[in-house]
Design a protein that fits this description.
It is built from five helices and 28 strands. It is mainly β.
Length: 465
């Protein structure tokens, strides 16, 4: 049994929950251990030889099955008793295969939203009981749902204009929110079920509940003094107040009147305390405000929400609100709060933070009139930093490599015949300098060479290559 020296997968891995894999024709299904857009790990009953080419079926009880081609990269024994685990690299992944993988990753990471037996969307729990992400049937970002301190569910959904601001509404339950987002008349089902209750507090800094105070000792009654006065007549007890009638509960699937909702939002809207984020040139790039339990809302320089930052046991996680319907499931981890803000606001150094108060939806007097624009293609991420972009070219199987400022660094092209090598043409610094050509086995290796990186970067969203 060979031991893996490294795993070349650079896309996000999702632990397996309900997916199964059939490695060979007639073989017994084996559980899926984890899954990414580049490969998967399975727990078969028998070991597999390194370098073996397999034609496998990847299945889910709600999404059906997909035939895939894979190459065995490693196999090792784990656990007690020792059981084999096999690492597979997917070799021929087209648009239909990639679409199935994205939907399966969303189903494994969260819950399927069902109307009858049809899967209409996916619901991912970002922070249990307080923050959820809604993906449509193609597993692209549709909305975020956040629970505030008053228990209300605030929904920020993708508008009709992909580049426009999100539309906001309130809901009484997750079923209510999904019914409005998906245009359903009946409440959908979640499989598996979603809990609205936050997890119990744990950790080394959690104080145990204080024991109840012991009841005070009964006071000793004083001995009555002898008297010749008649005993006082006891006063009648005052009548008990009648309980107020309880208000009728609102229907589970009705939104408030738009004018009433607007008046309520204006009456209860309060400024948020947070941080003003500046880059190393002291230019304001955005704001971060604490809006939930270990959850920050991220705003650009115009105080429009661009994402969510969550603190977890391992550090911080940044979730971006996609600029277009094709935006991928974006989640990048960082070890510290300043590093997470560097990732969120795409700055090369740790930011400068200062305390401030903002009101979302209103312009601050300190905000410069600079609009935030999206990149021209897939972002090139390395060690939590954005280095540039890879954009599709005018011809098939061709891409342009761009810097953060949009300057073209080179051209990429894939061969039309096996073994499908990637050829990189790097531009010279001046017009009289000759161009350099390199040949690489994968798109990520070519992009790493273009930016002179020591390892493969992460492309967001991933490219079909």
């Amino acid at each position: 049994m060979s031991q893996p020296t490294f795993d070349r997968r650079t896309t996000r891995r999702i632990p397996g929950a309900r997916g199964v894999v059939v490695l060979r024709e007639g073989a017994r299904p084996c559980p899926l251990h984890d899954l990414s857009l580049q490969g998967l790990a399975v727990n078969p009953s028998q070991a597999a030889a390194e370098g073996e080419e397999l034609e496998l079926d990847l299945a889910h009880p709600r999404l059906g099955a997909q035939r895939l081609h894979a190459l065995v990269r490693w196999c090792k024994l784990l656990g007690e008793p020792k059981q084999p685990r096999v690492g597979l690299e997917l070799t021929r992944v087209g648009p239909s295969e990639r679409s199935f993988l994205r939907r399966l990753m969303a189903a494994e990471a969260g819950s399927c939203v069902l109307a009858g037996d049809e899967v209409l969307a996916f619901l991912l729990t970002v922070s249990q009981g307080s923050l959820w992400s809604v993906l449509d049937e193609r597993a692209t970002r549709l909305a975020t749902i956040q629970r505030d301190e008053q228990g209300r569910l605030l929904v920020a959904a993708r508008g009709s204009d992909p580049c426009g601001p999100p539309r906001h509404m309130q809901a009484t339950s997750l079923e209510h929110a999904l019914s409005e987002l998906l245009g359903l008349r009946a409440a959908p089902r979640f499989e598996p079920a979603i809990s609205l209750q936050p997890p119990p507090p744990t950790g080394r800094f959690t104080r145990p509940p204080a024991p109840p105070a012991p009841p005070p000792p009964p006071a000793q009654a004083a001995a009555p003094k002898p008297t010749t006065e008649p005993a006082p007549v006891p006063k009648p007890a005052p009548p008990k107040p009648q309980p107020k009638p309880k208000p009728k509960p609102k229907p589970a699937h009705s939104l408030p009147n738009p004018l009433e909702r607007q008046r309520e939002a204006e009456a209860k809207s309060q400024p948020l305390r947070g941080h003003c984020v500046r880059d190393n040139q002291r230019k304001i790039v955005g704001y971060a405000a604490l809006t939930g339990d270990s959850v920050w809302s991220l705003y650009d320089e115009r105080i429009e929400q661009i994402g969510v930052l969550q603190q977890s046991a391992g550090g911080y996680t940044v979730f971006w609100l996609g600029d277009t319907p094709e935006s991928s499931i974006v989640a990048v981890d960082a070890e510290t709060f300043p590093a997470a803000l560097s990732v969120a606001f795409e700055i090369d150094s740790l930011p400068e933070l200062s305390h401030t108060v903002i009101t979302p939806g209103e312009r601050s007097v300190e905000v410069p009139e600079v609009s935030r624009r999206s990149g021209p293609g897939s972002r090139v991420l390395f060690r939590k930093r954005v280095l540039g972009y890879v954009a599709e070219g005018a011809m098939d199987n061709a891409w342009a490599v761009l810097s953060k400022e949009g300057e073209q660094l080179g051209l990429l092209a894939r061969d039309t015949f096996p073994p499908y090598k990637f050829r990189l043409c790097r531009m010279g610094a001046t017009a009289d300098e000759s161009m350099e050509f390199d040949v690489h086995d994968s798109l990520l290796d070519a992009v790493a060479r273009a930016f002179e990186l020591p390892g493969p970067p992460l492309l967001d969203p991933p490219l079909d290559a």
